[in-house]
Write a structure and sequence with these properties.
By secondary structure, the chain is mainly alpha-helical. The protein has one domain. The protein has three helices and two strands, in the order E-H-H-E-H. It has a two-stranded parallel sheet with strand order 1-2. The longest helix is centred in the last third of the chain and has 14 residues.
């Protein structure tokens, strides 16, 4: 299981929500089965529906 906080802390070079989406997609392709939203991303461009967006990105990554 991937935790969102671990992804964010482990990749300090990620500076925007758009970059976080790519990171979450990669987590989905690397064999992770679940993504836990234990924190809210604190980027200026984080949308209101951030959980839906990240869930879709994780699923896209897991399907490829």
């Amino acid at each position: 299981m991937a935790q969102l906080s671990d992804l964010i802390i482990g990749h300090p070079e990620v500076a925007s929500f758009r970059e976080l989406i790519a990171l979450v997609e990669h987590a989905g392709t690397s064999g992770q089965m679940f993504l836990e939203f234990d924190v809210k991303p604190d980027y200026r461009d984080t949308p209101r529906n951030w959980q839906w967006v990240l869930e879709a990105a994780f699923t896209r990554g897991a399907d490829t």
